[in-house]
Amino acid sequence: MYASREDIGYDFGDDSKVGSKPVKPNPNIDGGWAWMIVLSSFLVHILIMGSQMALGILNVEWLEEFNQSRGLTAWVSSLSMGITLIVGPFIGLFISMCGCRTTAIIGGILNALGWILSAYASNVHYLFLTFGVTAGIGSGMVYLPAVVMVGQYFQKRRALAQGLSTTGTGFGAFLMTALLKYLCTEFGWRNAMFIQGAISLNLCVCGALMRPLSPKDLREKYVVRSDSEENRAKVLSHSTETIKSNGVLSEEPEKKEEAANEEVLGSVQHIEIGGKSGSGRSLYGLRILKTVSQLTVTVRKGFALWYSSYFGAASLFTNRVFVAFIIWALFAYSSFVIPFIHLPEIVKQYNLSRQDNVFPLTSIIAIVHIFGKVILGIISDLPCISTWNVFLMANFTLVTCILTLPLLQTYVGLAVVCALIGFSSGYFSLMPVVTEDLVGTKHLANAYGIIICANGISALFGPPFAGWIYDITQKYDFSFYIAGLLYMVGIIFLLIQPCIQKKQPREKSTEEAQV
């Protein structure tokens, strides 16, 4: 069952330029400022994902305040969680044009604005716009850069770094639940949301910590990666066409684009130098023209990269394994969210409220989830272990638990299954690593944006679908069974596509030998 990173579409880069001379790696790669990036991402997960896990506290307050149905009120939380992930592909465009730091700072301001405006809500539909849409988009603009920056700064310990940063979700679930409960009790839910909006401004500080790597540092990272895996790369029989089908873009169009951009800026600079003898007003106008030209070049370059990744000839969607990864993401996330939403009601049906009040089952998932992310990250970074195999094993464990949970009606049995759900769902920390292995660091922002967009669709429609099944059958059993079966379909896609991808080059080499 072993599959190396190359077997699932690893981005090799230009091997012809590798190994000619030793390159000294940047000390900030896998060390130095890289750990500040992990800290920044950790705080982002606390403030965004942790707050969304604690929205049940506010949901109770909204039900009492507006007297609307539970289904309608629940859409406020569902919109916020879903939009945070669904906007991923569009946030990839912002990152391509403005960079991770600027995108995260703007997102922090937008998220805080959404919380503050929601404090003045007069009805649930108002919350749809302010909290569901505004705060959700702001959260997405901070969340994606936080994940991408960790991938850029780490090479050897990527899985561990992603695991440590994403444990903020578990810590945030505890901290934000306690904080919102205290604020609602002492000051009321409106003032609580206003205060939470002020706290969310710290996302701008987290964004400011996301210091971008220079193009030289990124090139050094590519060289170090290629050097460390050169021997394994030579063994593979992938042709040039196969590598291009895996989503690796050609460098020639990019070089032509850069040459055109330099020509435009050079002409503006030539005009500015020639006009030094003119008036100061003319020089001021030329400086404005130069600034606008540079901004235009940046926007064009970012949009070209974003467009080519999604719609160009070498689109990410030509990578079959990546497409299978998207299909998996459409079904996977709801299987994790549904237990969080519906376990409290299941506990009441089984008359286990007394034991659950002592130690809630959702808390068991959150606690073990923290350890699962770290431990799976450490295991995946071992040289003899494939990240892809660890990812698949964790998925198999989680889908087994989802299908088993309805069969258990004792607190101890449910607690064991919830612990396994929490640990196996630690594979979330491996998702950026697997995505980077599929498409390369250069296209990580756009590719991971697509993945979390698929997760957002799953989070948006999964819990309401489970509630709809309960309204029909008066049982949650079928909700878990259907979610588990759909999840299994996604895992099967992940298993089939790498085998097809690996088999195609062998068939092609056999045909060439016959010719």
UniProtKB/TrEMBL annotation:
Pfam families recorded for this chain?
MFS_1 (PF07690)
Q: Cross-referenced SUPFAM superfamilies, in alphabetical order? A: MFS general substrate transporter
One Gene Ontology cellular component annotation held by this UniProt entry: membrane
Membrane topology note: Multi-pass membrane protein
Gene3D superfamilies from the UniProt entry: MFS general substrate transporter like domains (1.20.1250.20)
InterPro entries the record matches: MFS (IPR011701), MFS_dom (IPR020846), MFS_trans_sf (IPR036259), Proton-linked_MCT (IPR050327)
Q: What is its main location?
A: membrane
Record field: transmembrane: 33-55, 75-95, 102-120, 126-148, 160-180, 192-210, 321-341, 361-379, 386-405, 411-434, 446-466, 478-496
State its location(s). Answer: Membrane
**Which PROSITE patterns does the entry link to?**
MFS (PS50850)
Q: Which GO terms describe its molecular function?
A: monocarboxylic acid transmembrane transporter activity
| Top-level taxon | Eukaryota
Q: Which residues belong to any copy of the Major facilitator superfamily (MFS) profile domain? A: 37-502
Which UniProt keywords are given for this protein, alphabetically ordered?
Answer: Membrane, Transmembrane, Transmembrane helix
Q: Does the keyword Transmembrane helix apply?
A: yes
Signal sequence span is none
Question: Which PANTHER family does the UniProt record give?
Answer: MONOCARBOXYLATE TRANSPORTER, MONOCARBOXYLATE TRANSPORTER 14
Instruction: List the protein's name.
Output: MOT14 protein
Taxonomic lineage of the native organism: Eukaryota, Metazoa, Chordata, Craniata, Vertebrata
What gene is it encoded by?
Slc16a14
